[in-house]
Amino acid sequence: LVVDDAPTMRLLLKQFLTGMGCTVSEASSGEQAVELIKTSLSIANNPSPIEMVFCDMRMPPGMNGIETTKSIKHIPGARTLPVLGMTADEVPHSTFQEAQRAGMTSLISKPIGRTQLASMLAEHTGTLLTRSQTPPGAEETEAFDRKAALETCEGNEEFLKTLLLDMCKDLKSRKSALEISVQRKDSARVAEITHNIKGIAGICSFLRLAKAASDCQNAASESDYLSVRSKSQVVLEEMSIAIRIAENFEMER
Predict the structure, then answer these.
(1) What is the DSSP string of 215-230?
(2) Is the model's pLDDT at 186 over the cut of 90?
């Protein structure tokens, strides 16, 4: 079960996991995930039970990853279900300890590669993977690292195009939300939006956008409005570039 409020993240993980032979369910919120697990456990001799949960740590305005894990662990029959938290942020030790107390199995950083997923599956479900991939280069300075994005999609250009178009829709909706939140000086909301943008951009190898979003998120977390205003402009500019690249993406012939 993949639980994430970002459709692009769900799409990518589903592609990876399906390619490993897994049957994948999706939830866009912790609340939806809990209901899906209850339904799965209620089916006698379920041929496709939920055996593992990948759960985003931040899914506003609903339950976060830790709250979702606590709710899952209170479901009869789900106490031993592995729940892996996913985050695009650095995790302080206190948050890690809280996640452990909630029953979370592990915390993994976004963007998540196929090799990392394979390792987790092998450890917790016995599913093995033979192919691996190289994670995107962290020092890439171009707006879009096509090679890294293609590696993420295992060389499948058709899927990469689908992923970029999905990202494009997501960014367009978040772009207006970011502009409004900056105008309202709503630092908490700016931090939430840029956190999501950072994760989406990292997955799709728009590393300049990911860096700009991270810088803006940090400024918003410190309620530094002057810095938020300037850094948000960089994010908005990079979002426009990413949207244009995604809309004009052409597969190599």
Answers:
(1) HHHHHHHTT-HHHHHH
(2) yes
Q: Are strands 53-56 and 2-3 parallel, antiparallel or unpaired?
A: parallel
- The DSSP bridge partners found for residue 107 are 85
Q: Are 226 and 190 in contact (CB under 8 A)?
A: no
Q: Is 135 left (phi over 0), alpha (psi -120 to 50) or beta?
A: beta
pLDDT, average across residues 121-125? 70
Token digits for 236?
Answer: 């908005």
Nearest to 79 by CA among 33, 23, 37: 37
Dig out the tokens for 150 from the structure: 């293609």
What stretches of the chain adopt beta strand conformation (E)?
2-3, 26-27, 53-56, 83-87, 106-109
For residue 110, count other CB atoms closer than 10 A to its CB. Answer: 21
Whether residue 19 has pLDDT greater than 60: yes
DSSP secondary-structure letter at 204? T
Amino acid at 137: G
* Spatial CB neighbours of 115, under 8 Å, sequence gap ≥ 6: 129, 132, 133
Structure confidence at residue 4 (pLDDT)? 95
Cα 74 to Cα 50, 70, 79, 83, 104: the distances in Å are 16, 6, 7, 13, 13
Listed residue (134, 34, 123, 27) closest to 82, CA to CA: 123
Cα–Cα distance for residue pair 108/86, rounded to 1 Å: 5
- What is the distance between the alpha carbons of residues 25 and 3, in angstroms, rounded to a whole number? 9
Between CA 250 and CA 246 the distance in angstroms is 9
Q: Which tokens is 9 given?
A: 């993240």
**Residue pair 163/251 in contact by the 8 Å Cβ criterion:** no
Residue 138 tokens read as 């962290």
